[in-house]
Amino acid sequence: EPEVTQTPSHQVTQMGQEVILRCVPISNHLYFYWYRQILGQKVEFLVSFYNNEISEKSEIFDDQFSVERPDGSNFTLKIRSTKLEDSAMYFCASREEFRGPYNEQFFGPGTRLTVL
Amino acid sequence: TQLLEQSPQFLSIQEGENLTVYCNSSSVFSSLQWYRQEPGEGPVLLVTVVTGGEVKKLKRLTFQFGDARKDSSLHITAAQPGDTGLYLCAGAKWGNTDKLIFGTGTRLQVFP
């Protein structure tokens, strides 16, 4: 069964360093998302991406964050200068073509980012 | 601010018992998803409901969307240890946004 994959599974970095989290969405999906989950808290929306551009972003997604689909398969989240509060699980999700109210997003296993 | 509140927050039961988890909001959603999440893993989609009053069954799990599309419930019949996990509801409004708004989660522990 097709699934969303993410690498690395765990990333440890020093505060101020740049990190790139990678995702391979399900192959025929057209909508891509990043969410994050700080330990013990809710899953929070970061950004949605469609047709090679950002369609929506949350207040969390400031100038330090960027997303890219560099080729036909990868979808990346870059954090330019990491802060301690960026430590969280980051989930990539994807969805197939627009089907009205059906908004079935499929999630990857996540990348645990630890900023020291 | 759109919020989805789940109750109870924690639930510990014996194998064979029935349980219901609630997901409530003051906002109307066009769809509501239920996910299950294991520790250190991503949410796994269980079901999507889109019509007010809709009921969907997945083996021993029964999902219902409220008539006004502001709330939902998950009922598990004869719970088993394999049902243990974090259950999340997530609402969406299609149109100008398709982000998922996640609930606060219900952590279920089923003891043999």
Helix-strand layout with pairing:
The complex is a heterodimer of chains A (116) and B (112).
Chain A: E1 5-7, E2 10-13, E3 19-24, E4 31-37, E5 43-50, E6 53-57, E7 65-68, E8 75-79, E9 88-95, E10 106-107, E11 111-115
Parallel strand pairs in A: 2-11
Antiparallel strand pairs in A: 1-3, 3-8, 4-5, 4-9, 5-6, 7-8, 9-10, 9-11
Chain B: E1 5-7, E2 10-14, E3 19-24, E4 31-37, E5 44-49, E6 55-58, E7 61-65, E8 71-76, E9 85-92, E10 101-102, E11 106-111
Parallel strand pairs in B: 2-11
Antiparallel strand pairs in B: 1-3, 3-8, 4-5, 4-9, 6-7, 7-8, 9-10, 9-11
Q: If you had to describe this structure to a student in words, what would you say it looks like?
A:
The complex is a heterodimer of chains A (116) and B (112). Chain A has a single domain (5-96, 106-115), classed as Immunoglobulin-like, CATH 2.60.40. Chain A has strands at 5-7, 10-13, 19-24, 31-37, 43-50, 53-57, 65-68, 75-79, 88-95, 106-107, 111-115. In chain A, strand 4 and strand 5 form a beta hairpin. In chain A, 0% of the residues lie in helices and 49% in strands. The model of chain A has no long low-confidence stretch (mean pLDDT 94). By secondary structure, chain A is an all-beta fold. Chain A is built from no helices and 11 strands. Chain B has 112 residues and is mainly beta. Chain B has a single domain (16-111), classed as Sandwich (Immunoglobulin-like). Chain B is 0% helix and 52% strand. Chain B has no helices and 11 strands. Chain B has strands at residues 5-7, 10-14, 19-24, 31-37, 44-49, 55-58, 61-65, 71-76, 85-92, 101-102, 106-111. In chain B, strands 2, 4, 5, 9, 10 and 11 form a 6-stranded mixed β-sheet that branches. In chain B, strands 1-3-8-7-6 form a 5-stranded antiparallel β-sheet, with no helix packed on it. The radius of gyration of chain B is 14 Å and the shape is globular. Chain A binds chain B through residues 4, 6, 31, 33, 35, 42-45, 48, 55-56, 58, 89, 91, 93, 95, 100-110, 112, and chain B through 30-31, 33, 35, 40-45, 48, 50, 88, 90, 92, 94, 97-105.
